[in-house]
Amino acid sequence: MIRCVGAVVHDHSGRLLLIRRATEPGRGLWSIPGGRVLPGETDVDAVRREVREETGLLVDAGPLLGSVLREAPGGAVFDIHDYSARVCDGTLSAGDDAAEARWVTAAEYALLTTVDGLTEALRGWSALPTG
Fold it and tell me: What are 82-97's pLDDT values in tens digits?
């Protein structure tokens, strides 16, 4: 099991923050910012770090929305814990393993190819974009 976190971030208009993955798994697909929790790191610290690295934005991590399990290379399993988060500073800019980072409306989201299971998870948590 590989512990990971994700950040579900909405702006004041209800748009959702997404990144297009530059690396595997999911290269070229859209997802929420996130990644592996480093040894000795809390989930909250990992959420802050991953969002900053991938989007240039600083966030405050909020409550856990839910968790999902996804297959990882080599037969491992990603144990992903997705948290609500709120932007507190920074300028949006893709970085680290994100090829792009942007805010998307509900209509824009519907046109994107997302990583497996993202839409279902966000729908189950009432976290799809509304803007």
Answer: 999 999 999 999 997 8
